Amino acid sequence: MGALIHPLVICGGNGTRLWPVSRTQSPKQFQRVGGAGTPSFFQSAIDRHRGHGFADPVVVSSARHRDTLHGQLRDIGVNARTILEPMGRNTGPAVLAAAMVLAEDDPDAVMLVVPSDHVIDGDINATIRAMKSAADAGYIITFGIKPRYAETGFGYITDGGPIIEHNGLHAVERFVEKPPTRKARLLVESDIAYWASGISMFSARTIIAEYDKVDPDTVRAVRRSIERAVETEEGLFLDGDSFAECNNAPTESMVFEKTDKIALAPLDVDWSDVGSWTAMYGISESDPAGNVLQGDVIAVETQNTMVRSDNRLVTVVGLTDIIIVDTDDALLVTKVGHCQSVKKVAEHLKKTERVEAEKHAGTETEWGNLRKIVSKDGLDLSALRIKPGAVAKVEAKPGREVIVASGSVTVDDGEQAKTFEAGARHMLPAARDVRIANRGSAYAELIFLTLPVSGEEAMEALRKSNYA
Question: Is the pLDDT of residue 450 over 90?
């Protein structure tokens, strides 16, 4: 029996209810929990299960988030075994992949599956350590939270009575998925129902065997994706063709609700899946007026309101029960209690192919970042930062000029390559994309100015944008 518990942190999901902070390319789990200087949800999940009794974590994440993932791990000084998915297939295949990787070294390795985007306050690890012997014995343990109110957005687990051989472990009577209000109220009043926390524990051997009973095709597909995977310094890149054949389903519905090895362990902690801005307000520390103010915020005659500002001063006067979230490129204003509908905004943005659904302004890429300063009436002013040794591709556009603010860059338009130092200005070709290479040892900083083609239009655009 393995002596240590292996935390498995699943980094899936887009967290659309926390837009505009959470975006497709920078989802909820990588956003900070509170104000400036606080850790991200992912970092908090990693840090929660460190120390006595725990091995280094295993992380399963989308390949597209690998840079962010490793950057956040470095920030908290943690080494992790990383498995990178070519596409999302829900938690089932992700858990299977981690189980198979761990089983190569130790089939009896005990895995603790933890979501990457929840907030937990309390001694969770005491209960987890106490349940390890049950996991060693072949149980699949799901951890439940005593409900504080009749929540319709959570799944429930009902208690089927104690399992005598393992103190604190209970049988599972049934699972109830997101019940309507009346049923949720009855469950809470029954005193035998628990919120499903999304946290579970079992051995690698057990979960693979139980999954194989109900979905052998997915087990074979995951195994092939590992056999054909590519191991790099960034992690194990699963084979896309094989992984695409997996059944897109959560572990709970595929295995937990069907196996006779399922068990329940109650947790005595404060827990939130932070599924909305109302929930975020609820877990944050407030002032005597009930306000949660994060960033450069001034509140006057305001109560029970949350304001989160990433970069600029935000002032509010005479507000009650309002939530305001201000980022570089988007502003959200909503009432407490209406925050579940923020998902509709994110879905609309995605449907209309707005960039605000996908990423933040100035999102870091493999070559650097591009931040739009102003875009109005044909005028576009943007700041480009290129990493040392990196190359950025710039699309062709009439009237586009580049100004080198710092560093030394080589501009290659496909016909000729020229090197420019700080202070240089260069008009880019209107019909050809260009590649700009930073050959220096520090970031190169550039300004892109794109004006309407005619001089009269250009001056009018400048006047309207207050840059004349």
Answer: no
What is the H or E stretch that residue 314 is in? Answer: strand 314-317
**Strand, coil or helix: 277:** helix
Model pLDDT for residues 202-241, shown as the tens digit of each residue:
999 999 999 999 999 999 999 999 999 999 999 999 999 9
Helix (H, G, I), strand (E, B) or coil at 63: helix
Q: Evaluate the CA torsion angle 204, 205, 206, 211 in order and state its sign.
A: positive
pLDDT in the model for residue 365: 63
Q: What is the pLDDT of residues 251-285, one digit of tens each?
A: 999 999 999 999 999 999 998 888 888 888 988 89
d(CA 211, CA 95): 10
Angle at 16 between CA 68 and CA 373, to 5 degrees: 65
Kindly report the CATH number that applies to the domain delimited by 368-464: 2.60.120.10
Nearest CA to 119 out of 308, 275, 225, 353 is that of 275
Instruction: Find out whether 19 and 346 touch, Cβ atoms under 8 Å.
Output: yes
- Bridge partners (DSSP) of residue 23 are 26
Q: pTM for the complete prediction?
A: 0.77
Q: Are 42 and 26 in contact (CB under 8 A)?
A: no
Structure-block tokens of residue 350: 């995605």
Using the CB atoms, write b or e for 6-15: b if 16+ within 10 Å.
Answer: bbbbbbbbbb
Residues of the chain with CATH 2.60.120.10: 368-464
| 395-429 pLDDT, tens digit each | 777 888 889 999 999 999 888 899 999 999 988 88
Q: Could you give the CA distance from residue 27 to residue 19 in angstroms, rounded to a whole number? A: 9
Q: pLDDT-based confidence at 31, cuts 50/70/90?
A: confident
Predicted confidence (pLDDT) at residue 181 exceeds the cutoff of 50: yes
- List where CATH 3.90.550.10 sits in the chain: 5-272
Does the pLDDT at position 456 exceed 70? no
Beta bridge partner(s), residue 322 = 335
For 5-272, CATH number?
Answer: 3.90.550.10
φ, ψ of residue 343 in degrees (nearest 5): -55, -35
Strands (E), 358-433: 368-376, 379-386, 391-394, 400-406, 408-412, 417-421, 425-427
Tokens standing for residue 242 = 């094989």
Q: How far apart are CA 335 and CA 12, in angstroms?
A: 28
Pick from 29, 95, 107: nearest CA to 60: 95
Q: What is the torsion angle, in degrees rounded to the nearest 10, for the CA atoms of residue 70, residue 72, residue 73 and residue 74?
A: 90
For 78-141, give the DSSP string.
---EEEEESS---HHHHHHHHHHHHHTT-TT-EEEEEESS-EEES-HHHHHHHTHHHHHTT-EE
d(CA 47, CA 179): 33
